[in-house]
Amino acid sequence: MPSLGCPPTGNQLRVVFFGMDLRILRELAACPVDLIGAYLPNAPYTLLTRLPPLLRWVFKCIFREQVRTSAVYMPLATFLTAHNIPVLSGTNVNAPKFLRRLAGMTPDLGVVANFGQIFGAQALAVPRYGMINYHPSLLPRYRGPSPFGHILLNQETRSGATWHRVAPAVDQGDILAQKSFGVAPQETLPALERKSVQCATQMLGPLIEAIAEGTATARAQSEADATYFPKLTRQEKGELARMGRLIG
Q1: What is the Cα–Cα distance from 174 to 1, expressed in whole angstroms?
Q2: What superfamily does domain 14-41+89-242 belong to in CATH?
Q3: Could you tell me which of 94, 200, 79 has the C-alpha nearest to residue 138?
Q4: How confident is the model over 170-199, as pLDDT tens digits?
């Protein structure tokens, strides 16, 4: 596993971003780092913005999956273009071609937030100091892709945000930074999500500084305390709606 050592004095960390959360990317771009790239899946972002309405409609009918991908990632793509941040494209972050491209960028660190792929050992070994991931709960509790809804369904009174090392096993890497907050009795899912992201952005700058200085510390997660929850079912979403906690 890569050490959390420090780069040569006076150099900024060369960082690549993986994820869909624009708020985390904005915070990362404001940090004293060299943001050398961000991942975007292959999709016709620029083409969709330039086509006339009729041709755009035809394109959407023929290439529905690519259009859906563009719709999800378009705010990110717009931000990258506006700030001249290089795009690292691909469909599979573990594919040999993608790994060669990533290695050629010589990153020091990968920052991950709301990313739908699982990194293999080869991908994790490319950045000099590995990758760090934002998870929206107090790990090791509430591992999995959709912690917010389950936190509310279980009527938890506290939640939080965690930055941890990325490991091949989902949400099981060592914890690097963690912050908690109270969950109000009528907290809604969007409000809970906003609180967690705010905590994550507050921790990101100091964590990156600690990694750059070689002072970051990591602690292993307790598997005895770990819990995992999958995506919300339709019934669970309905229950949250009846509780008045799904939107707002």
Answers
A1: 11
A2: Formyl transferase, N-terminal domain (3.40.50.170)
A3: 200
A4: 899 999 999 999 999 999 999 999 999 999
